[in-house]
Amino acid sequence: MTRLRFLFGATLAVVLGTTACSSNNTPTTPTTPTPTTFTEVFGGTITLNGASSHSFIAQASGTATVTVTALAPDAAQPIGVALGTWTGSACQVIIANDRAVLGSSLNGAIGSSGSLCARAYDATGALAGAVTYELTVVHP
User: Fold this and answer.
1) Cβ pair 80, 98 in contact under 8 A
2) pTM score > 0.70 for this model?
């Protein structure tokens, strides 16, 4: 019986000791980690009725942004820019801007990781000559 009292007393002392030491009753709010973002730059040339697609891999959900960062010979010449899902052979367009010029951006929500694409194209069928472009894509 003495041994049982000793164990009970030791356990009670440990419980009371840890309770007495814990005086911080402020609850903490868990933090959500910020996903890592990647920046990729794609470029090329499109001509009358032409298009070019560039695939990339999103590592997580979040927002993808494609920005026209170069457009020559005329920065005011509108082209089409799109974000979509890469099928393995083509860009399935989800969101597009048919009148993008230098500095135009397009944002799309990504629900999960996967193969995506950015596409530049002649949206109006009116390009007078070759247009060189650069797209900067920021994605998770």
Assistant:
1) yes
2) yes
